[in-house]
């Protein structure tokens, strides 16, 4: 599959980014109104609520992938694409372990190193399918910047007590820290590193599966009928 044709990433992610923004606002409204599980959750981390944007890469990854293939911007080698995706996943998990251990020991410098590793994890899969990786990275930024903004106001709300949503629920060891430090480690860094890496890796996984299914279907439909 060639990768020579230009594609407008901004145009490609526009509608998915808008849908994601609407889901973010819907989730915020649901949590503020205590609409409840399993659709909404005010628990720290989101409580695996159904209404949320972390699931969307499973949908938009295949959508981006098929659009890119149609315009001649697919991957050159399936083995290479899968290999770099696997490597990116390993880097993400290893970086997550570093962040977890560093947080438990309040070693903030090492936590930052772990977060930077997550950024690297997002870029590793680019080697296997550059256009899809770039598209998912751009979509991840468009998805997560609004969340960071919401978290800022949620954490500052009610005189610093928060809005009572998952957007302002922080780790038990964090409440006594200055706001800037809480915001950095609970909002900005996770959203702009870990969740973007999640978007890229999960989106690529779903995209590669969709590409494989589409290719198999095409081969089946074009195969000559048996004698």
Short overview:
With 227 residues, the chain is mainly α.
Based on the model shown, name its key terms.
227 residues; 6 helices; 67% helix
Task: Walk me through the structure.
With 227 residues, the protein is an all-alpha fold. The protein has helices spanning 9-32, 57-70, 78-104, 108-123, 130-156, 179-222. Helix 2 (57-70) crosses helix 6 (179-222), helix 3 (78-104) runs antiparallel to helix 6 and helix 5 (130-156) runs antiparallel to helix 6 (179-222). It is globular, with a radius of gyration of 20 Å.
- Main pleated-sheet profile: none
Strand portion, in percent?
under 5%
Characterize the overall form.
globular
Mean of pLDDT? 90
Low-confidence stretches: none
Number of helical segments with 4 or more residues: 6
| Broad structural category | mainly alpha
| Record field, number of beta strands | 0
Distance between the termini: 31 Å
Tell me the radius of gyration: 20 Å
The topology string of helices and strands comes to HHHHHH
What is the helix content? Answer: 55-70%
């Amino acid at each position: 599959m060639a990768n020579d044709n230009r594609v407008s990433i901004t145009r490609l992610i526009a509608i998915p980014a808008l849908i994601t923004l609407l889901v973010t606002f819907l989730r915020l409204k649901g949590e503020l109104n205590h609409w409840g599980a399993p659709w909404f959750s005010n628990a720290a981390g989101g409580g695996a609520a159904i209404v949320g944007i972390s699931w969307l890469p499973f949908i938009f990854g295949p959508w981006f992938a098929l659009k890119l293939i149609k315009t001649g911007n697919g991957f050159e080698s399936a083995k290479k694409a899968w290999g770099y995706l696997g490597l990116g996943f390993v880097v993400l998990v290893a970086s997550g372990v570093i962040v977890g251990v560093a947080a438990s020991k309040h070693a903030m410098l090492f936590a930052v190193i772990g977060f930077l590793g997550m950024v690297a994890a997002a870029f590793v899969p680019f080697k296997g399918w550059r256009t899809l990786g770039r598209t998912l990275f751009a979509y991840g930024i468009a998805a997560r910047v609004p969340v960071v903004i919401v978290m800022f106001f949620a954490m500052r709300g009610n005189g610093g007590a928060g809005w009572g949503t998952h957007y302002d629920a922080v780790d038990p060891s964090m409440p006594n820290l200055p706001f800037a430090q809480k915001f950095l480690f609970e909002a900005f860094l996770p959203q702009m590193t870990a969740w973007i890496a999640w978007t890229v890796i999960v989106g690529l996984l779903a995209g590669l599966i969709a590409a494989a299914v589409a290719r198999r279907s095409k081969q089946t439909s074009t195969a000559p009928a048996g004698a």
